[in-house]
Amino acid sequence: MDEFLARALAGGLALAVVAGPFGCFVVWRRMAYFGDTLAHAALLGVVLGALLDLDFGIGIAALSLTLALAVGLMQRRRDLASDTVLGILSHGALALGLVVLSLMQDARINVMGWLLGDILSLDWFDVAVMWGGGAVLLAALAVLWRSLVAITIDEDLAAVEGHAVERARLGLMVLVALVVAAAMKVVGILLVTALLVVPAATARRFARTPEQMAALAVLVGAAAVVLGLGASWRFDTPSGPSVVVAALGVFLASRAVPGRG
Amino acid sequence: MTAPALVSIEGASLVRGGQTVLSGVSLAVRPGRIVTIVGPNGAGKSTLVKVALGLLAPDSGKVTRAEGMVVGYVPQSLNVEPTLPLSVRRFLSMAAPRASRPEQEAALERVGAGHVLGRQVVQLSGGELQRVMLARAVLRRPRLLVLDEPVGGVDMAGQAEIYDLIADFARTQGTGVLMVSHDLHVVMAATDEVVCLNRHVCCAGHPEAVSRHPEYLALFGARVANSLAVYTHVHDHQHLADGSVGGTEHGHGPGCSHHG
């Protein structure tokens, strides 16, 4: 096996391990569009990063965090529906990114690479960052876990029972923003939400507890990464879309199996 | 010799989106007492409950709650996300982590839902979920029980049982109960104090006195109110010399005679 395939697998599996549990909350709390918004806006982060001569990762992470907090705070005011707010931010930021990009004459930004991801370009440092960063993100999620499950059931009930509702809510948005920023390099802006949503949705019918669903989502995601990268290698198809197609295949196959949830 | 209130609201007003939702509302819940809020739709009942719970801060007025008090809360409705796998057992444990399995079973048994412990929450019917939520609130061994229409979706026979259970809990455990109800018949029979709310407190006090109050009659109609009078006498032995009925600052109509 070539080394760059090994790196791609190592990076992809790191992502599957992180995306499984976070993807469950994306499904439970209906945050799929939030993930899409962050991904779309990330192109603006890439462009601004290039303008300011920053590392792409820093540009994306900074923009994603800002946006996550902005959405979190705007959702407190209820004069606009949540998906309307996201629609404005998502497409506004994407359009702004494309316009600014066109104005930058000398920018060498591989737009296709960002849109579709390029897992085969990961180096070992990237892989180490993904596993290390992933461990930190999962540890933070574990701290918030009980409160997050409680606010997923009912925010008022959780508050009465002593959970720090606001901390959990905003914390989750910030963490998901970081997961999306990390995943983008692997599967690209267009497909990043799929890696969160599809494994969790596949796991739902076979889980009887929140934790089972998170663990199963990790397994489904890992299977999709292995199958997708294998197919990409064998048939010379783009890696990000191949992983998502593999996840879709697992999802569809799972529907044929009787569930127990 | 009145026990200090578990929660007391004095002159709370709340405006949302230019609409006055609550205006100068006062009430107090003491240990072992059942206070029931009645009122038409849009009267601000659920808002008042949220103010009492500390979930909403009033724009003016004062809310005092006993320090470190464990509260059991049953919201008006609970829409559990169908994608969330959650057993009834886990749902109960989240509210009361220290309750043992037999305690959980006993609590469900008491609310007439002993058969659902192993089920998933999303598979429960509306009435079953309502019973499970009550069991969950009680398992917390609360000093204050706050119930927003606790029998919504529960069948008629079950409703009386549940009100009996709530009353029994208040008498034996000394728990204070703040409850919202539409079910005027049962309210009148199973409560120590009724607060009739229509953004402001129309009248408050002994169920029987409130049911004869002109503002109450105007809100609910004389026919409903008369049918209630039959039921109230059953319960008036509960209202002893104490007679404290929520203060005088909320203003009473001329026919109001419920002050002890």
From TrEMBL, chain A:
GO terms for cellular component: ATP-binding cassette (ABC) transporter complex. Gene3D superfamilies: ABC transporter involved in vitamin B12 uptake, BtuC (1.10.3470.10). One of its GO terms (biological process) is transmembrane transport. The keyword DNA-binding does not apply. InterPro entries: ABC_BtuC-like, ABC_TroCD. PANTHER family: ABC-TRANSPORTER METAL-BINDING PROTEIN, HIGH-AFFINITY ZINC UPTAKE SYSTEM MEMBRANE PROTEIN ZNUB. Involved in the high-affinity zinc uptake transport system. SUPFAM superfamilies: ABC transporter involved in vitamin B12 uptake, BtuC. Belongs to the ABC-3 integral membrane protein family. It is found in: Cell membrane. This is High-affinity zinc uptake system membrane protein ZnuB. It is a multi-pass membrane protein. The chain crosses the membrane at residues 6-28, 40-73, 85-104, 124-148, 168-201, 213-233, 239-257. It comes from the Bacteria. Keywords: Cell membrane, Ion transport, Membrane, Transmembrane, Transmembrane helix, Transport, Zinc, Zinc transport. It holds the Pfam family ABC-3.
Automatic annotation (TrEMBL), chain B:
GO terms for molecular function: ATP binding; ATP hydrolysis activity. Gene3D superfamilies: P-loop containing nucleotide triphosphate hydrolases (3.40.50.300). InterPro entries: AAA+_ATPase, ABC_transporter-like_ATP-bd, ABC_transporter-like_CS, Metal_Ion_Import_ABC, P-loop_NTPase. Residues 7-223 form the ABC transporter domain. Residues 241-260 are annotated as: Disordered. It comes from the Bacteria. Keywords: ATP-binding, Cell membrane, Ion transport, Membrane, Nucleotide-binding, Translocase, Transport, Zinc, Zinc transport. The keyword Zinc applies. GO terms for biological process: response to zinc ion; zinc ion transport. Signal peptide: none annotated. PANTHER family: METAL TRANSPORT SYSTEM ATP-BINDING PROTEIN TM_0124-RELATED, ZINC IMPORT ATP-BINDING PROTEIN ZNUC. NCBIfam families: PRK09544.1. This is Zinc ABC transporter ATP-binding protein ZnuC.
